[in-house]
Amino acid sequence: MGELITVDDPADPRLHDYTDLTDVELRRRREPAEGLFIAEGEKVIRRAGDAGYGMRSMLLSRKWVDVMRDVIDRSDAPVYVVEPALAEKVTGYHVHRGALASMQRRPLPDPADVLRTARRVVVMESVNDHTNIGAIFRSAAALGMDAVLLSPDCADPLYRRSVKVSMGAVFSVPYARLETWPKDLTTVQDLGFTVLALTPDDRARTLDETAPHRMDRVALMLGAEGTGLSSRALAAADTWVRIPMSHGVDSLNVGAAAAVAFYAVTAGRPQSDDPR
Length: 276
Fold this sequence. Notes:
The chain has twelve helices and twelve strands. The longest helix has 13 residues. It is α/β, with parallel strands linked by helices.
């Protein structure tokens, strides 16, 4: 059972994991280096624990102790109980959901290990907006994608904003980083995946014409908001695909486009094909 510890000093070193959560650049450097990430809110904390991530500590306002009692009882991690005003001083923002947990990161798997049992994969290039990362992971989980591969410069899926937007879906979809971009796409192709590059380019075939749900193994590649896929990534793809647009709209937000494309990739797929 985790020990309940009342803390009334925002400079208490035991709260180090939770300091300056709104400083994006600082947290992007600190969290991977220190092997931690922050889970915010009851559902996300529970999903992180259910996915096997170890808990370092919790930071709760008093009224959340009873709500999280079963989680506290299952863990040996310390639980720091603070007033909401003190939590705001430590984190830099008002913690609306009243519950934070510092979780232990795990080593990322090798891309080949992630791909071994997968049939429907998301590949992201330079998607560095944490909100978009979270939205894409949530759609990938909901619509039956098996895994996610990230280019080296993609944002961290375990950054607090990504985790929060995904509602913990980042814990349920296996992911890995490709080391050399876009050269490592050949690894994906060598394992039998057809790499489809999602682009609004008129030269691309529509998803209906391509019928990716009938392909054996598909890797759907998405680019960053605004810039889309690079010319190198497009050149490395097997096929360009697009979502037909109407009413003069030229493209969708990458999160929305991902959801539409994931449905096209997985529609009609037998449930028994899911490797998880």
